[in-house]
Amino acid sequence: MRKSLTTALVTGLSIGLIGCGGEQGGKAGGTASGKKRSGDVNIDGSSTVAPITKAAAEMFYDEVEGADAVEITVGVSGTGGGFKKFADPDPNLRTDISDASRPVKDKEIAALKEVGVEFVEIPIALDGIAVVVNKSVDFTDHLTVEELKKMWAPESQINNWSQVRQGFPDLELKLYGPGADSGTFDYWTEEIVGESKKSRSDYTMSEDDNMLVQGVEGSKGALGYFGYAYYEANKDRLKLVAIDSGDGKPVKPGRETISSGTYKPLSRPLFLYVNIASLEKPAVKSFLDFILDNAKTIVQHPSVGYVALDDAVYEVARDRLKAKVPGSAIASAAPGPIDFVELYKAN
To answer: Is the pLDDT of residue 193 over 60?
Structure first.
């Protein structure tokens, strides 16, 4: 019962499909009349989380009886852009699910409250932000957080590798990264620069991680950052850099180091946010039940490549979805390692 997955066009860039034979452009939110059908599932948000919902959609079409009647649209406008669509004043244009590579922010919660949207927060996977360089960068295999901050701080004027560390060669440094609507950008600026949304702006930015891969691959001396899964899918084209968080022990991202939290400070949880009103649509409810029933298979699928959470976390998420428990537990959680089961049971 395979059906081709509709993928929204974002900022003029079409996003590639996972396991799909074709690609359609579509407006996230519904039909030509602008109204959503009961068989629509409309998703937008993080480019990091999009592979999860795209792969889930392909599996859903293959495995669920009657799935051919459902039209699943996955847009990629960044975590911030996704939350804007999640809170669209027009209910006919509002998305059902928002993919997010960071927790929802207080101002986004306020915007959702203003238009009457209640949501369920679902942790879905763990990911690490990979720092990659062009293969011509053969003079180092690691960088420190402080060196990255020097490169990316708003006031940074570093444009040559010789300015980064004594002994580095005279080689132009070209930077690539996501735009300001990206949850990856938010997380990076908080953990590397030290303040959310603060970054130099004179770099090549894109919400499409595939464009960032191409940019780093094609520019001698280039450095970029994006979700680890995109490195995994393109590891023959790029060089992965280990990160020294300040203890003199550089660590590369991988399933084990991301899961254990030893890849710091660039390991992070990924989320789905679900409009509670959308759970009245059988298609949305069926799709989400399918995701949580098959979460580990979806998250660890070769076309996705993230680190799955424990079974107990998905069970808690399933219970919260069934009970339609509103709000974000993690938005107000204390910094540090997260015990999702305890956190969500207490909230």
So the answer is: yes
| pLDDT tens-digit map of 136-159 | 999 999 999 999 999 999 999 999
Alpha-carbon torsion 185, 187, 191, 194, what sign?
positive
Partners of 239 in beta bridges: 133
| Cis? peptide before 265, omega within 30° of 0 | yes
Residue bearing tokens 């690490």: 128
Cβ atoms of residues 127 and 307 within 8 Å: yes
Contact between 182 and 79 under an 8 Å Cβ cutoff? The reply is: yes
Helix (H) or strand (E) holding 43: strand 40-45
The token duo for 340 is: 């999702």
| Domains annotated on the chain, with CATH | 6-127+269-346 (3.40.190.10), 128-260 (3.40.190.10)
Kind and range of the H or E element at 91? none
Q: Are 274 and 120 in contact (CB under 8 A)?
A: yes
